[in-house]
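Margin note from the TA: students keep mixing up input and output lines. Inputs are the sequences; the output is the structure of the whole complex. Example:
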Amino acid sequence: MSIDNDTHATDTDTSDAVSQLEHDDLHSHEISDKNYVIIALLLAVLTAMEVAATEISSFPSSLLVPALLLMMAVKFFVVVSYFMHLKHDAALFKFGFYIGLAGAVVLYSVVLMTFHFFVN
Amino acid sequence: MSDTTTEPRATPEPEAAIPPGYDDGQDHIGLAHHTTTGLSNTKLAMWLFLGSECLLFGGLISTYMLYRNRQGDAIGPDQLWDIPFTSATSFILLMSSLTMVLAVSAAKRKDERGTRLWLTVTALLGGLFLAGQVYEFTVFYREGLGYTTSLFSSSFYTLTGFHGVHVAVGIIMLLSLVGMLAKGRIVGDKAETVEMVGLYWHFVDVVWIVIFTLVYLIPA
Amino acid sequence: MAIIERPTDSPALAGAGAAVVTPSSSYGYFRRPVQSSGWKSWVFTVDHKKIGIMYGVVAMVFFFIGGFEALLIRAQLAQADGTILSADKYNQMFTMHATTMVFLFVMPMAAAFANYMMPLQIGARDVAFPRLNALSLWTFVFGGIFINTSWFLGGAADGGWFMYAPNSSVPFSPTNGVDFWTLGLLMTGVASQVGAVNLIVTALNMRAPGMTLMRMPIFTWMALVVQFLLLFAIPIITVALFLLLFQRNFDATFFSVADGADPLLWQHLFWLFGHPEVYILVLPAFGIISEVLPTFSRKPLFGYPFVVFSGAAIGLVGFGVWAHHMFAAGLGPISVAVFSVATMAIAVPTGVKIINWTLTMWGGKLWFSTAMLFAVGLIVQFTIGGLSGVTHAVAPSDTQQTDTYYIVAHFHYVIFGGAVLGLFSGIYYWWPKVFGKMLNETWGRWNFWLMIIGMNLTFGPMHIIGLQGQPRRMYVWTENRAGEGFFNLGFWNLVSSVGAFLLGLGALLFLVNVWVSRKNPPAPADPWDARSLEWITTSPPKEHNFDRIPTVHALDEFFHRKYEDVGEDGQHDYKQVRTGEQVIENEEANAEAHIHLPSPSYWPIILSFGLLVICYGVIYSTLLVAAGAAIAILALFGWALEPPTADDSEFEPPSSDGGQPSKELAHV
């Protein structure tokens, strides 16, 4: 193997290509300002629904809590995926963030479980 | 604002002098082909940091959830919460996320005035949110919820306090960014710097989405 | 971009030596530091090599401080009814011994290696964020000093390194010691957290062309896993530390049982961090010996992918076993059973590594240098510690073992026998590269054997006295509880104490070695005929590391540049076609013309100092908090407004006789 083989070889061409692809990808998924406003309105509506749900006294607690958690989760992922652009961003960013998120949810849920938190 | 520079102050060197993919040990923002993954150093760093922040807030939230019903004889959540008011401040913070994203969008279009405008609005909305928090806490305090009143109170104020500090730091960053953009003191990719501050700001908003539901809405 | 100006006839750019440049810009009073020699070139440096060396030196100082604390403990326990330490002093001693060894020696020493070696191993010129790197260093240094000033300021922390609440709250720990501990660890936590982000981005984004993840040297891989562990574990202890801080300083009731609190909250939060922490301690050592063993067996690492994946598995599963530190805390049978099984599972990937290391040596041409001795020592000693660990995994037997010296035996075998032996292996292995001199091999042997004999005499008997019931953290043992015959506590405590002093002597021999080796002739660039990229540099490396960033075509790239495979029919037969020196010369001959390095900066150390002032302020005076915050905010703004590389106008080439200042780096 020649050690003078110093073409800054294929990997950089690949990463050039990758960054070009990503660039195109970003453009094709470019969210317009108008769409951002629509998403924000959606989030506002969800928040209103959450608050309304707590006002309805006929809602049994066993249904209310999962419903609230679901709406919370939807809002969470909408902001992360679209406002923070994670949906159309590199897998490595998703990895770094979601590992932390999943880790936190799992670990702290286990801790709360040992405190019998989820037992009514 | 960040560890970036690609714009030299002196005469710029021709790009041809630096072979593509050549890593000279400096962080390059916006010059994605200078990193192995093709991704920006700062952006990767920010996402890793936000991943770690999930564990910070997770711990504070868990502590609150554990202690939320332990107020003894003192005043408890049911008597304290003013849901309409908190809904309003939550809405304000949510809208600040929208204005933040509009700022990033303006920065990408190189619309400098628009960027500074939306960043300022974001900071103002954030400030409004914080003002609402402060008002809310003074009301709680007058109603008998001090920091050391009960486990519930300590956990509540600690959780929301940490969040509030994060918001305050965010506001400082936003305003500093506006100033630095106006004075041309941002080195490197301006749009990306705005985007980084945006990621932090959205995360702070996202934490509040969780807090609002778990703390205020879910019945104790 | 600014280029460092050097006159063409400047002296050889080895190590830190370079033409002295002085700042001259009209930038105002706070000129950026640009010195390349003298103390300022160390204090304001952002060069990962200098930072790595400072991490290592400071860590070594804390090693001896922590060791001295251990010797006081062992002197106290050498006889019944010891009088050397009072009960209160004893509590402080074991707390600070553990805190110092874990947070101020092993972690920073591993950081020293990661900082110095990772960029070199991946073919980079520095880390991703050089100023953040400096911030990590100085925050660690100030944090370590801060914790230790507690000895002179009312007493050190006395709640054990795990600082269980409510014992650590004010009624039971009235001095400021616990606050020094809490705030100091918050500072070192910032250092680790920032460093974790920095090194992850470095390893992922700054590899040389051709270096895929599966061609990364194994030490870099293990260091990368460790950074992920730090990234996710440090925030958890940060929460615990803040809760304790607020409890002690603002009368919060997080751990006050009388107010309805649950003391297990502290235990969960602490051990959620604490268990990944022990893998943070040992994985760097595993990475080091994964480099050392192949080099001195003249064979590639056996099963490189297995070693990589088992490292990642240890990291992942390591987050799932924390409650095995709480088996006797009253968790209930379901929790205990789950964590018991998980703990047994984690022995598997570690076993995979032991097998791979052993098979690396099998059939190799073994060269027992001191570095190799320490590496083999790790395999043997860590296995012993691992075996006792397996017995802890079985919850019923752990219920007898917990809080006895049996546990102390276990963790010293894995921490000392694992992490510390591995770190010493790395010190001996990479010393010629870092400092340009060989360490003396004879003194090295004495250093090694005395440490091995000492550690086994110290910690071996602890298995026995532990199973006989001697509890941890008791400042005396008495004759009437000492038992008879073979298991007499008195005899084994004495053996253990004698062993500890032998161990201390062995450690001192390392310092002796450093001293007698200081006048050795310059070391070759490749003294061990090594395999990875960090050896394609001079000894010590030039400031810019590589004259030309190498292009990587294989794992063990350096090895493959020296040896060609002339085997036939699928058989490998490696013939040396070049020496290491020739490989390096070839790189020098093809040196790049423009090399850019990040410039030094004041702001990291100023920011760290601001944090230090805040910490003293929390204990003593709100005014100090405000002052520290002001310094910190000033530093943050200064940092944000300063570009990573100094402007050309900030350099003024020295007037050397007849030398023409040039914009190029001088070729050596």
